[in-house]
Every structure is written in structure tokens, then in C-alpha cells.
Amino acid sequence: IHLTRKGPLAETYFSWDTESFPDGWYRVKVVASDERANPPHLVLTHEWVTHSVLVDNREPDIVDLVVENDLTVRGIARDNFSTVKRLEYSLDGGDWVLVFPEGELHDGTAVRFKFKLPKPAIGAHTLHVRAIDAGNNIGVASRIFTIK
Predict the structure, then answer these.
(1) CA 129 to chain centre
(2) Cα torsion angle, 110, 116, 121, 122, sign
(3) Do the beta carbons of residue 130 and residue 87 sit within 8 Å?
(4) What pLDDT is attached to residue 105?
(5) C-alpha–C-alpha distance, residues 125 and 52, integer Å
(6) Cβ burial, residue 133 (10 Å; 0-12/13-18/19+)
(7) I want to staple 82 with a disulfide (CB 3.0 to 4.6 A). Which of 53, 89, 123, 134 is the partner?
């Protein structure tokens, strides 16, 4: 994939809009030249290739989310390319509460989680669970459950 512009770059930065690129690892090659300041026979160029850069635009999925009768919540948060770095839940639109995956380490692209909810009042409730990956993409899943 070539990232090019019409004409030379005059700024000291280049913003790469990765939205249209598939998720994956990329290396970027930068070619610098002084051709605008010198005649053709004195032009110098230099190339540099970056280390691998992760493009991760896809949010994590939360699958197999269940709220058991004893208010234990189970599920799996997974991402295609980057580590799931944070898990949180919100009950009935309240504050987000941090939870850890099983094993207490955010060390993989798929993590299982299990936590216990505080006992809410009798009636219907909505649980939201969100996962945030290393690319800061956020995936959310919800379940409605009833306390009798």
C-alpha cells in the first residue's frame, strides 16, 4: 500500500487516516528529498522504514454474555488484532465499574470474564459490559434480566 500525495509534503507532519485500511500490521516507508531546494544534479534523498504499526479500527466483540440467577455474569471479550486491555460494566445506566478477566491479566486478544453483580431491586434491569482494546476501540454488549 502506498501513501502518497500530489506534490511534496511541506508540513513537518503527515496525518494518516487509517479508517479505510483493513486491520493489520503495517510498515511505513518515508522518503525525504531536498529536490525543491537544489538543482537535479545535487538532489539528495533518504529513506526510512518504520517498525510495524498496528492499524486497529474494529471494536472488540463481547460474546456468550449471560447473567445467571445468582447474579454471576460470564462472557468472553475478544479482538482480532490487539489485546483487550480493560473490562467494565454498568448496571441500569449507572457508573462504569472496572472488572478483571479470569486470571486477572489483560494479556490476550480473547479474555474470559466472570464477576458478581450487587443485588438490585426487584424488577427489570439492564446490564452493559464494555471491552476496550489496545487500539482504544470500545465494544459493548447488553443484557436485560429480571429480579423476582
Answers:
(1) 15
(2) positive
(3) yes
(4) 75
(5) 44
(6) buried
(7) 134
Angle at 41 between CA 37 and CA 42, to 5 degrees: 45
pLDDT in tens, 115-146: 999 999 999 999 999 999 988 999 999 999 99
Residue 1: C-alpha distances to residues 4, 27, 28, 71 (Å): 10, 10, 9, 49
Residue 53 neighbours by CB under 8 Å, 6+ apart: 25, 26, 27, 28
The residues of the chain scoring below 50 in pLDDT are none
Over the range 89-117, which residues count as b (16 or more CB within 10 Å of their CB) and which as e?
bbbeeeeeeeeebeeeebeeeebebebeb
